[in-house]
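haha ok so turns out i had the wrong file open the whole time. this is the CORRECT one, sorry everyone. sequence first:
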Amino acid sequence: MRVLISGGGIAGLTLAYWLHEYGITSIIIEQAAGVSHDGYGLDFYGTGYDVAERMGLLEKLRERQLPFDNVAYVNDTGKMVICINNALMQKIMHQRYMALMRWMLEDVLHDALPSTVEIRYNTTLTAIRPGPDAVEVTFSDGTSDTFDLLIGADGVHSNTRRLVFGEDVLFERYLGYYFASYQLTDHYGIGHAWKNYVQPGRLASAYCSSQEDQIATFLMYKTPDEGRIPREQRLPRLRKVFAGMGWVTQQLLDDAPDPDAIFMDAMTQIHMPSWHQGRVALVGDACGCPTSLSGQGASMAMGGAYMLAEALHTAPDYASAFRQYEQRVRPYIEQRQENARKFAKNYLPGSPLGLVVQQIGLKFLLREAFSGLLRQQFGAESLLADRPAHVFEPTRLPLPHR
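then structure:
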């Protein structure tokens, strides 16, 4: 079996790793020029943590985790109002939690791939022609090839999904918010912390990076759907939206880097009636993006990739494998999507009263006594909780053509 994976991010790299473990040949194509070092921070726990453990990657990830001591909410002068320290977060997650930059996770996954797994950078798909016996594709360089299966692991704005299943508008559900992120030198006293300042409909955050003198920002605001915001318009838009906001917000915007270094997108979920069609299937954000508000996007991408690879190994044919994979993973994705939609209103209140309610609620709940409730709210239940780790044979033979 020969599988083409469109997308060299978290889902695609994880899928390629596990396909190799099962003796299935895969090729990854990725539109970027190489492993990217931009993006934002993420909480890593639950399913993703379990998959990384089965890949033997936890120690390498621990070496790269963000050195934060606490997550705090501050007022307009920077005074701490609410705080959850890292020790409490570890207790909530039973010591199975890390804070990472997204690109750090991608780096570790990339390095874990065997050298025999081919990755073609600067490459996308321009045409997909599914057939009963194979999938023929045309690459952006004009060449064509044929594969037994095509897996779209190319994110919320999936090109594979668009070419096979239809336009984005059919599947996107906008949650009412935009967010942006970029990195800066720490001139603001952020230190080993993740600081948040909230006003109705606006949030400005800054948190420690992997380098001692670096921080990353996270800006989020409520707005009607504005479509894709071109790079050259991002910084002017952010300065307009956050004008007059207190704390160090204006300094963060004044010091913003070149527009090409600003990551910005809408908080958009993907909802599809089916994740597969013929010999094409989707995984990760391409079929079930829960958004960063879920805290589980990266983890569920890894879990979905793990389950898809396992299904392709154990099922009698690819069609059964696709159905099995979706039946197992979809309920977890849908629950996390629902949690994210509910959480959005609490995370970024739209009114002064909502802001007061948020602060009272956080002060009450962020205690060790509520660890179980918080763990449930964070969606920490793992897809792999009832699934034993696999023991592989020393010799892996390629599977027959299906």
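Confidence is low (pLDDT under 50) at residues 391-402.
again sry for the mixup
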